[in-house]
Design a protein that fits this description.
Blueprint (H helix, E strand, L loop, with lengths): L10 E8 L26 E3 L8 E6 L6 E8 L10 E4 H7 L7 E7 L2
Parallel strand pairs: 1-5, 2-4
Antiparallel strand pairs: 1-6, 2-5, 3-4, 3-6
Length: about 110
């Protein structure tokens, strides 16, 4: 993870979620995240650029700052062209909002 950009400790932006539909493999059990581990939408994980794999981040809803979840970064994304800050696993997003919401404003910071 050398060469990753450093960031201010607190960031705000848009969070989305992803599940099996984001898997590019036709065999679900073979879908891998960017760090090489098997993808599981039920884990408390997320995709984010320019931060080390396995770093933990506290993600809170901007409009409900007491509704938070801690996720471990194991993937890269979201697509930079979409302007989103973080892609949460399905399970992590559900802790913050109903899946139907699709996108939420969040504030994130390192969990440590």
């Amino acid at each position: 993870n050398e060469g990753l950009k450093t960031h201010p400790s607190v960031k705000s932006g848009i969070a989305s979620w992803y599940g099996w539909e984001a898997c590019r493999s036709t065999v679900v059990s073979g879908c891998k995240t960017a760090n090489g581990e098997r993808f599981n939408p039920e884990d408390m994980t997320a995709a984010m650029w320019d931060v080390p794999f396995n770093s933990q981040w506290r993600v809170c809803r901007a409009d409900l700052p007491t509704r938070c979840v801690v996720v471990r970064i194991n993937d890269r994304g979201p697509a930079k062209r979409l302007g989103r800050l973080i892609d949460l696993s399905k399970a992590a997003f559900q802790q913050l909002a109903p899946l139907e919401t699709g996108l939420i404003q969040v504030v994130i910071k390192p969990a440590s």
